[in-house]
Amino acid sequence: MLLRIAERVPAGSRVLDVGCGSGIISVAAASAGAVVTAVDVNDRAVESTRRATAGLNVHVAKSGLLQNVRGGFDYIFFNAPYLPASADGADDAAWTGGKSGNELIFSFLSQVRGHLTEKGRAFFTCSSLAGFGALEKKLGELGFRFRVALEEHAGLMETLRVYQVW
């Protein structure tokens, strides 16, 4: 879902891809003419993104969320692990966002404002399984304005949303 937005960023935009994984968001934004920084906490993801973005205007680095990120960005994308953790806690960190599913997103939100330019926007994914109400309450507590940029049903039991915040 984030890919549809990343493909349309204006040329020359400064883009940050947090949790870059395979690098698909970075490739799309750079191909649209953006200057991209991509970060991930996972070494394999960092290497995958480096390979995928070879020859494009993309700087790739290892970082837990925004810890090693400097500067401001016009667009920040976070394809967050957003599913709630199982009771036994034996989940893969690549898709679990914490006990409720929103904890990693909450951590991202507590850091992102300092990396947005004056007119910058951040986009991230969230699942109904983690709870939209708790997320929207947290956005209000943190003083963000937001809108649902995209929404899709993922089967009978889940809805996915991309939130835009500023």
The CATH top-level class label: Alpha Beta
Low-confidence stretches: none
Evaluate the radius of gyration: 15 Å
Identify the CATH architecture. Answer: 3-Layer(aba) Sandwich
Strand content: 25-35%
Concise synopsis of the structure shown:
The protein is of the alpha/beta class. It has five helices and seven strands, in the order H-E-H-E-H-E-E-H-E-H-E-E.
Note down, in words, how this protein is organized.
This protein is α/β, with parallel strands linked by helices and 166 residues long. It has a single domain (2-165), classed as Vaccinia Virus protein VP39 (Rossmann fold). It is built from five helices and seven strands; from the N terminus they run H-E-H-E-H-E-E-H-E-H-E-E. A seven-stranded mixed β-sheet has the order 3-2-1-4-5-7-6, with helices on both faces. Strand 2 (35-40), helix 3 (43-52) and strand 3 form a beta-alpha-beta unit. It is globular.
Topology overview:
Layout: H1 2-6, E1 14-18, H2 24-31, E2 35-40, H3 43-52, E3 58-62, E4 73-78, H4 103-112, E5 116-127, H5 132-141, E6 146-153, E7 159-165
Parallel strand pairs: 1-2, 1-4, 2-3, 4-5
Antiparallel strand pairs: 5-7, 6-7
List keywords for this structure.
alpha/beta, 5 helices, 7 strands, 26% helix
